[in-house]
Amino acid sequence: MKIIFYIIQKEFKQIFRNKGMLPIIFVLPLLQLVILSNAATFEVKNIKFAYIDNDRSSSSRALIEKFEASTYFNVLTNFPSEAIASSAMLKGEVDVVLEIPSHFERNLQKEKRSNLGITINAIDGAAAGVENVYVTQIIQSYNKHIKTDLMQISDTQIRPVNIDTIPLFWYNETLNYKTYMVPGILVLLVTMITLFLAGMNIVREKEIGTLEQINVTPIKKSQFIIGKLFPFWIIGMGLLTIGLLLARLIFDVPMVGSLLLMYAYTSIYILVILGMGLFISNFTDTQQQAMFIAWFFMVIFILMSGLFTPIESMPEWAQILTEFNPIKYFVEVMRMVMLKGSGLMDILPQLIKTIVYALIMNGLAVWSYKKTS
Amino acid sequence: MGISVSNISKSYKDVKALQNISFEVKPNELFGLIGPDGAGKTTLFRILTTLLIANEGEATVAGLDVLKDFKEIRKHVGYMPGRFSLYQDLTIEENLNFFATIFGTSIEENYDLIKDIYVQIEPFKDRRAGKLSGGMKQKLALSCALIHKPKVLFLDEPTTGVDPVSRKEFWEMLKRLQQKGITILVSTPYMDEAALCDRIALIQDGEILQIDTPENIVKQYPKTIYDVSANNMYQLINSLKAYQHKHSVYPFGEFVHYTDTRSDFNPKELKTYLEAQNLSNISIERTQATIEDSFMELAK
């Protein structure tokens, strides 16, 4: 016990003496949290919108006013011809072009219908989809409006049938992306820092040769490993705490669920990551190698965690792969507990999987750590 | 309580690092492993300190088997690797405390053993190890290797890269440790240090050439050695190498060590030959063989 305590003490001394690493451990992650949470949103705003009005009627102007009134669109200009609009889109000056045909108003009045041309720059497919939805919404609301305007007395018997859907967004009523992203990004930071630090730590002792000196001492494997990894467990928990404080103070993310449950889950989760770090360091000889391997897994874990893209939309084989992704469980649990107030029973499947993962990972790591080569 | 090595072999893939090594180090002996870089000294140290497992053969350290009792051995040996391997970002005192703690002891408990060495660096005990000079680092490393009062001390090239004064001091320290009852196995590429050991093993390419006291090894040198010098060293060596009766020619400081194949060698004859080679200021003197000469002869 005294030995473990002394190693922990030594590790902390080394961490706090490393003037280059300190800001990397504590300041950069929080900067990332603040920047990423504000930047990583799926909302599409400031869409560069232009139109070609071939009709020049009161109806067409009314439609364009609708777009001007929307906060999503920046109505830039009126192009005289389609060719000019196309070349402007090619140059990237506009994202969406609305083409109103001539006789737009006349057709509406005579035939009760008219067509509109919409061109959307779809290089970013996701953004194009969102833009399409916005455009459709605006045209629909214009549609309703125009119907009542155009309806004549004889038409009043024929009531238009309209089905309205009024969505209720539970757990995040205003669809605030920050509420959704902050818990996820917090997960990333805790994972990244603990994995990199743990992965590099023992390799560093290999590199500077101290591991050899340690290996000839009667110290037990378990003492050394616990002593080496425990400080990073503490740092992980510390990062979680600071992150949660920031989430509450800066982003006003609701914390519906039990903090205790969040900490309990994280304490086990970090064990998985530390085990992984140790495992990596057992199979590498330099910090550089360890860093690259850790980075490789990190990128896969992040992209397949459901943080940025929903797991439900991945191909089936990829969905099976995500079962082995610890970050996925952590993201799920954080979102469930923080936003939905899930209890122990709700997160039990994730908790059990994480515990099993921690046991396997640490088992492998301790088994592969050899004092003799 | 010494060391016994019998028929140890170790290879890394195709490279045979050690071949059939056997020797005994008696309790309380200062035993030297002398050989050039790459001779297999470090591999042997790593096997004896239980860091590496040999392919073949057996070895015991302080009466304990390196395979079966490796845990027990680790309590009783001190190892100072060739490369400085303490924590550069910890101070002298913290390093020493750290190793004392993981050996389950404290600085105070074994202070008398390291006192001689530690007092020299104690004034700087709050300085980080990375900021120490080479000689001080080496003293710290030795203190750390001694902090748990080991029965056997392994020193892998402790004086490589250390200035001559510190080297001399270091060997004096070793002599004092020996008097305190510690068995010491030390390796060095410096032949002049070999004479300071009780017994030495000359090792090259993973094989032991000879084991004996330094005096006996020198005595067994089969030839008479001559110190030859002249005005032009380079030309002298070339001329001697071209001489038909030469046995060996090695530069040795300001002289060239020369041995002849004939038993009735007459230095005057050689002098005449060298003069014919346009060399002047020629001197040819008989001299004593050194460990280096023996090594060169054996390694031939």
Automatic annotation (TrEMBL), chain A:
Cross-referenced Gene3D superfamilies: abc type-2 transporter like domain (3.40.1710.10)
Transmembrane segments: 21-40, 180-203, 229-251, 257-280, 292-311, 347-369
Protein name: ABC-2 type transport system permease protein
Domain ABC transmembrane type-2: 135-372
InterPro entries noted in UniProt: ABC-2_transporter_component, ABC2_TM, ABC2_TM_bact-type
Taxonomic superkingdom: Bacteria
Phylogenetic lineage: Bacteria, Pseudomonadati, Bacteroidota, Flavobacteriia, Flavobacteriales
Main location: membrane
One MF term in the entry's GO annotations: ABC-type transporter activity
From TrEMBL, chain B:
Any Pfam family matching the protein: ABC_tran
GO terms assigned for molecular function: ATP binding; ATP hydrolysis activity
InterPro entries associated with the record: AAA+_ATPase (IPR003593), ABC_transporter-like_ATP-bd (IPR003439), ABC_transporter-like_CS (IPR017871), P-loop_NTPase (IPR027417)
Domain of life per record: Bacteria
Keywords: ATP-binding, Nucleotide-binding
Domain ABC transporter positions: 3-230
TM spans (from-to): none
Protein name per Swiss-Prot or TrEMBL: ABC-type multidrug transport system ATPase subunit
Organism whose genome encodes this protein: Xanthomarina spongicola
Taxon lineage: Bacteria, Pseudomonadati, Bacteroidota, Flavobacteriia, Flavobacteriales
